[in-house]
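Example 3.2
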Amino acid sequence: MKFLDWYLKIAAVSALIGASMELFMVKTGFCDDKVTVLESEKLAWESSPEAQAIKDALNPWKQHDPLERKDS
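Structure, written as tokens:
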């Protein structure tokens, strides 16, 4: 490949940046406190009846799904 060395450099730099971000989050405790709270709030919201109603209202394929099931 003509640009293999360029792709390898980009992959190495990207991995280094990602690893440094993870290390920063672990060192500062960001992962433990903030992310845990955000994830639990997100899961609680997604399982609520309001969120399900919004998902159903915004689903453009809700009329197409029953038709496909009848044809199958």
